[in-house]
Specification:
The protein has helices at about 25-30, 145-155, 160-180, 200-205, 255-260, 340-350, 375-400, 415-420, 420-425, 445-455, 455-470, 480-485, and strands spanning about 1-10, 10-15, 50, 55-60, 70, 105-110, 115-125, 130-135, 190-195, 225-230, 240-245, 270-275, 280-285, 290-295, 315-320, 325, 335, 365, 370-375, 410-415, 440-445, 470. By secondary structure, it is an alpha/beta fold. The strands form 5 sheets. Strands 8-7-6-9-11-10 form a 6-stranded mixed sheet, with helices on both faces. A 6-stranded mixed sheet has the order 21-20-12-13-14-22, sandwiched between helices. It has a 5-stranded mixed sheet with strand order 2-1-5-3-4, with helices on one face. A hairpin with a 3-residue loop joins strand 12 (about 270-275) and strand 13. The longest helix has 25 residues, at about 375-400. It binds FE2/S2 (inorganic) cluster. FE2/S2 (inorganic) cluster (FES) binds near residues 37, 40 and 46. FE2/S2 (inorganic) cluster binds near residues 41 and 42.
């Protein structure tokens, strides 16, 4: 038996354990949250903890064999996008999909992102949004992207159950908070609507997601799923209806369906792009909707970048030049999040610190802080990610028989799209310069879509229309995609670059 003394946020605790397990496994087993984007495979270098007298070690590859003292990093605050924008529907309340259980009735719309979760609580009698809650998806501790989480389900006997339990218990915590604060009884929660990518919805419902990661990528379901409060672990009315909105394919989920449906009818031909731990795309040509997903990986969530981190307190989120950058929470910088790394790579290109092939002669150190540096491998990760997304855009445009001139708008969904400096994104070749005046961040379209579904029967028809009119293009089946992907790996020096950002 060995004793591990754990310090976190000024408190300490002793764990007694036997040898044999990794420190990550031991800490998790004792209820500590350790960020492990690669799922404990020893490849991301992010699961660091400080061992007194030993320095920082990767907790997933460290196997304690004697008494030690461990200092855990503090928990960071996260900024999550929840609000409405001018591009998204705000339909009048028409009674929505109330089940008419009584005079006190609450509906909850939940957007389960791979990284963040947003919950909208709506009074189903008046249509008033009573509360918006948001939090980091606790599953992010088990892997940054869906593939790592599916791997976790595959490799651990109770992996799926474990991931399902952590998300249900996090949602239950917010349901309980709402009940305490609002005076509504838990029994008055009669409806919950969920959007999310196909993997998130599978895990939520306890359905095996493994086939999503294996060719030919056929998920257990894409259609709307219905359960009752009785069948789930949610602390709500036992007769409540739990509904997940429909998905299009293994990698184009209900978040994209709800997001596209949430767009106001402002344009005929448009591109909808959601860059998160993957890059999902939809292109509307009139009534038709062409969709695809690019294996962009989680670089834009900071996960595959050596000093990358999520968009939380301490992350450099914008960068103009040395000495002029912005840190979330205005604290000392600890790492770089997706929007920050896009700015930094754009700057490195402009200053000839990297060439068109992405070649970097020596690590680029930010503001003299040796721990904050961009390495050659980081540039390669960004090249892979930006090329995957840009090439996906080209394939969809070609597939729809359109040219850039005929695209009215490119809508950027989600948090990354909101904080991204568009001119930097164009500079590095992530977004097309041809559309530079027609790129609009639309906010959390998936979450707002789920809320609209609660508010208005009309929105249900919009969802159905998206499903009926959509077709899915599997990029790995298309030779032209591979060709485009190789072609677009390089940077273009003469790409558009706008003005400095103002902080
Ligand atoms: S290196 Fe330990 S979780 Fe990735």
């Amino acid at each position: 038996m060995i004793r591990l003394k754990v310090y976190e946020n000024g408190k300490s605790n002793v764990i007694e354990t036997t040898t044999g397990d990794s420190l990550l496994t031991i800490l998790r087993g004792s209820g500590y949250n350790i960020y492990a984007p690669c799922g404990g495979r020893g490849t991301c270098g992010k699961c660091l903890v400080n061992i007194k007298g030993n320095g920082f070690v990767q907790s997933c590859t460290f196997f304690p064999d004697k008494d030690i003292e461990i200092i855990l990093p503090g928990q960071a605050e996260v900024i999550i996008l929840t609000s409405q924008t001018d591009y998204l529907e705000d339909l009048p309340f028409d009674g929505g999909i109330s089940l008419g259980m009584g005079t006190h009735s609450v509906g909850v719309a939940v957007d389960i992102g791979t990284t963040t979760v947003v919950m909208y609580f709506m009074d189903m009698i008046t249509g008033e949004t009573r509360k918006i809650a948001s939090f980091l998806n606790p599953q992010h501790l088990y892997g940054a992207d869906v593939i790592t989480r599916i791997g976790y389900c595959q490799e651990n006997v109770n992996g799926l159950k474990g991931l399902q339990e952590v998300i249900i218990s996090a949602i239950n915590k917010e349901l309980e908070n709402f009940v305490k604060e609002s005076g509504f009884a838990a029994d008055s929660i009669e409806k919950m609507v969920f959007v999310g990518n196909t993997t998130m919805l599978h895990i939520l419902l306890g359905e095996d997601p493994v086939s999503i990661a294996l060719a030919p990528f056929v998920p257990k379901f894409t259609s709307r799923q219905l359960r009752t409060g009785n069948e789930t672990g949610f602390n709500i009315n036992s007769g409540a209806i739990i509904e997940t909105l429909p998905c299009i394919s293994a990698y184009v989920g209900a978040d994209i369906v709800a997001g596209v449906a949430a767009l106001k009818n402002l344009h005929k031909n448009y591109i909808f792009l959601d860059i998160g731990t993957n890059g999902e795309l939809a292109l509307a040509r009139g009534d038709k909707l062409f969709t695809c997903a690019t294996a962009a990986g989680p670089a834009f969530e900071g996960a595959n970048i050596s000093c990358g981190m999520a968009a939380v307190t301490g992350a450099i989120s914008a960068f103009n030049r040395q000495g002029k950058y912005q840190v979330i929470g205005n604290t000392a910088p600890e790492g770089i999040c997706g929007s920050g790394i896009v700015d930094i790579v754009a700057y490195m290109l402009l200053e000839d610190i990297i060439d068109e092939t992405g070649l970097l002669q020596e690590p680029f150190i930010i503001d003299g802080m040796k721990k904050l540096r961009v390495l050659q491998q980081d540039i390669r990760e960004i090249q892979l990610a930006k090329s995957a997304i840009y090439s996906g855009i080209i394939i969809l445009i070609n597939h729809a028989g359109l040219s850039f001139n005929e695209i009215d708008a490119l809508y950027l969904a989600g948090g990354f799209g909101n904080y991204l400096n568009i001119s930097s994104a164009i500079q590095i070749g992530l977004l097309p310069s041809e559309l530079k005046d027609r790129i609009y961040p639309v906010g959390n379209s998936a979450g707002i879509g789920s809320l609209q579904y609660l508010r208005s029967k009309k929105f249900g028809s919009k969802i159905n229309k998206v499903i009926e009119n959509s077709s899915y293009i599997e990029l790995s089946d298309i030779d032209e995609f591979n060709m485009q992907f190789a072609l677009n790996m390089n940077f273009l020096k003469n790409n558009y670059h706008g003005k400095d950002q103002t902080f």
